[in-house]
Design brief:
Elements: E1 4-5, H1 6-13, E2 16-18, E3 24-25, E4 27-28, E5 38-41, E6 58-61, E7 72-75, H2 79-89, E8 105-106, E9 111-112, E10 117-118, E11 123-124, E12 129-130, E13 135-136, E14 141-142, E15 147-148, E16 153-154, E17 159-160, E18 165-166, E19 171-172, E20 177-180, E21 185-188, E22 191-194, E23 201-203, E24 208-209, E25 214-216, E26 223-225, E27 230-231, E28 236-237, E29 242-243, E30 248-249, E31 254-255, E32 260-261, E33 266-267, E34 272-273, E35 278-279, E36 283-285, E37 290-291, E38 299-301, H3 310-321, H4 323-342
Parallel strand pairs: 4-5, 5-6, 6-7, 8-11, 9-12, 10-13, 11-14, 12-15, 13-16, 14-17, 15-18, 16-19, 17-20, 18-23, 19-24, 20-25, 23-26, 24-27, 25-28, 26-29, 27-30, 28-31, 29-32, 30-33, 31-34, 32-35, 33-36, 34-37, 36-38
Antiparallel strand pairs: 1-3, 2-7, 21-22
């Protein structure tokens, strides 16, 4: 088991050491569960009381929490980022494959960089290019003329359709489908006429796609996810969507076709964004938001109703149903009042 001294960890994450820098750490843990040889973190001061009882060898924390810490500490402005960097350093997740399996089906003209590994029963079609260090899990299908950049990793049973382009250091979880046809049809007197989807899907560098998420290919132009985009499990990204750098989308969210989302946005889980709208940079939607028109200004937006006792919810819904009648009554009252005020003196 690989071990790191606190000095090595501090240098790795850019933290200041408080305590014995020679302490050896082999893994990360929670404040409540960590023990000998483990490091934990505190990123939310409301859990500060747990510092007194932790058995961790060291804790990554903010300077404001240091006086409450009873063990060695790595002090930095953003302890959660520090935890993420340490967890990456000590990551024990296995590779998606260990070698090029003899049970994989590989086209003769496929091109591989150094260190490419491919799991059993994967299919690599004609014209595919895999850069150095690419990992293809068991059962994946990489469609014709697709390209995958250096060190990108596909877990088992990922499907890439034809002409998909994946950048460097991407991670695609099991069951994801990249490049399926977008939902494009014309209606001819009640009969649906399919429109061929001849665009591509292009993922930038460091893009992550969650399990069972789908990213549809463009109809004429491309569907594009720029560098650093992260998408959770079971999301739907429709054709011709463009998502700006470092935007994060949580689980079960649906993005309608031809929508453009800016940089550094966040979209909470179970949200729905209609098609053909523009979302500005630095826009943040809370969970269960329904976005039916474009957003031009950065900020926080919400639309989902929080849960409440069922009886109160029924009353609220009943009130909403009566809003139209209430509005008409208010309008009649206003007209009546204005009519009296505006009438000639002799008519009052």
């Amino acid at each position: 088991m690989q071990q790191y001294s606190l000095r090595q960890l501090a240098d790795h994450i850019g933290a200041r050491i408080e305590g014995d820098e020679s302490i050896l750490i082999h893994s990360v843990g929670t404040l409540a569960g960590a023990g000998k040889g483990q490091i934990s973190f505190l990123s939310n001061s409301k859990y500060r009381s747990r510092l007194a009882d932790t058995s961790a060898e060291a804790v990554i924390l903010h300077a404001d929490d240091l006086p409450h810490c009873s063990c060695a500490a790595l002090v930095m402005d953003n302890p959660y980022v520090g935890f993420a960097l340490v967890a990456q350093l000590m990551d024990t997740t296995p590779a998606a494959a260990e070698s090029v399996s003899p049970h994989a089906v590989i086209a003769p003209d496929a091109k591989f960089g150094e260190g490419v590994v491919i799991g059993a029963h994967a299919v690599i079609e004609a014209g595919v290019e895999l850069a150095e260090g690419v990992q293809i899990g068991a059962g994946c299908v990489i469609g014709r003329n697709s390209r995958i950049g250096a060190r990108s990793k596909l877990w088992a049973n990922v499907t890439l359709y034809h002409d998909v382009q994946i950048g460097q250091d991407c991670l695609i979880q099991s069951g994801a489908v990249i490049g399926a046809d977008g939902f494009g049809y014309a209606n001819d007197k009640g009969r649906w006429v399919k429109i061929p989807q001849i665009g591509r899907v292009i993922l930038g560098n460091r893009v992550e796609i969650g399990a069972s998420t789908t990213v549809d290919r463009g109809a004429l132009e491309d569907t594009v996810l720029h560098d650093g985009v992260i998408i959770d499990n079971q999301c739907q990204i429709a054709h011709n969507v463009v998502i700006g750098e470092n935007t994060a989308i949580a689980g079960c969210t649906v993005i309608g076709g031809s929508t453009h989302i800016g940089r550094n946005c966040t979209i909470g889980g179970l949200s729905a964004v209609t098609g053909h709208v523009e979302i500005a940079d630095n826009v943040h939607f809370t969970g269960m938001s329904m976005v039916t028109k474009g957003v031009t200004e950065a900020g926080l937006y919400s639309s989902g109703l929080p849960s409440q006792p069922s009886r109160e919810w029924r009353k609220a819904v009943a009130s909403v149903r009566n809003l139209d009648k209430l509005g008409q009554r208010v309008k009649r009252l206003e007209q009546s009042i204005h009519g009296v005020k505006d009438a000639p003196e002799g008519d009052k």
